[in-house]
Amino acid sequence: MKNFVVLSGAGISAESGISTFRDSGGLWEQYSVEDVCTPQGYARNPQLVIDFYNERRKQLLDVKPNHAHEMVARLEEWFNVTVVTQNVDDLHERAGSKNVIHLHGELNKVTSSLDPNDPRCIRTLEPDEYEIHMGDKARDGSQLRPFIVWFGESVPNIEPAAEAVMKADYLLIIGTSLNVYPAAGLLGYASEEARIFLIDPADVQVNTYRDVNVLKCGASKGMDRLFELLGLKV
User: Fold this and answer.
1) Would you give the DSSP letter of residue 110?
2) H helices, E strands: number in the chain
3) At what angle do helices 219-230 and 67-74 cross, to 10 degrees?
4) DSSP 8-state code for residue 77
5) Which of 55, 92, 157, 184 has the CB geometry, 3.0–4.6 Å to 97, for a possible disulfide?
6) What confidence tens digit (pLDDT) does each residue in 202-227 have?
7) Given strand 123-124, what is the order of strands in its sheet?
């Protein structure tokens, strides 16, 4: 089977009702990135940050994978699929995708404030315990914090993501403008032989000399069109 890598971003989850950050009316208009998505913001006001992610988890309980997530999962009928996502939700997994690399962390997990990448301290929250509180401790005794990669922090999964892209026969970019590094650099790891597709309803400036097959539409409609282009049975 050939290797198919999907690079997904907020646009694929927007159809499920999850607020995006950068679009009009998105979360950045309600919150300052410096306050809720940086180590400095967490150090200044950990309560605000913990409450912010508690609300994001609560929202996640009310949404479901959409058609685009389901179609991405169906690609596994024909290909070895790796999903590399910038999203922190678990909608790819809930749709059935088996191999998902999260670049920016996972909303339904918590970890140590001292060493966020210590595997001993990373814990998955059950749906009925979506809230964490000040005073909740990780195994190392530090305050539990969201297992989220904040701006200014290292991205541990960028290397396995790059390795997956290097082996891709097909590369799909969906719901992301790939403007945020290091994720934006992943396209450069694609081989000369890889077929590249981009699904996005907006005009996206792709910084590559490569031939990119652009499908200018929403995520779900774009996945249907992709299946048609590849001759896959819907």
Assistant:
1) E
2) 8, 9
3) 30
4) G
5) 92
6) 877 666 667 889 999 999 999 999 99
7) 123-124, 105-112, 144-148
Domains of the chain, by residue range, sit at: 1-18+65-104+155-234, 19-62+108-148
Sheet strands (E) in 21-160 = 80-85, 100-102, 105-112, 123-124, 144-148
Residues acting as catalytic residues: 104
DSSP state of 137: B
Contacts of residue 159, defined as CB under 8 A and 6 or more positions apart, other chains included, come to none
Positions of E strands within the chain: 3-8, 80-85, 100-102, 105-112, 123-124, 144-148, 170-174, 195-199, 212-215
Residue 93, CB half-sphere, CA atoms under 13 Å: how many? Answer: 13
- Give me the architecture of the 1-18+65-104+155-234 domain, per CATH: 3-Layer(aba) Sandwich (3.40)
**Which of 191, 201, 185 shows the shortest CA–CA distance to 169?**
191
> Phi, psi (5° rounding) for residue 190?
-70, 140
20-50 confidence digits (pLDDT tens): 555 544 454 567 889 999 999 999 999 999 9
Of the candidates 183, 182, 145, the one whose C-alpha atom is nearest the C-alpha of residue 36 is 145
- The pLDDT of residue 22: 52
The token pair at 202 is 């907006």
Alpha-helical runs (H) found in 124-184 = 158-166
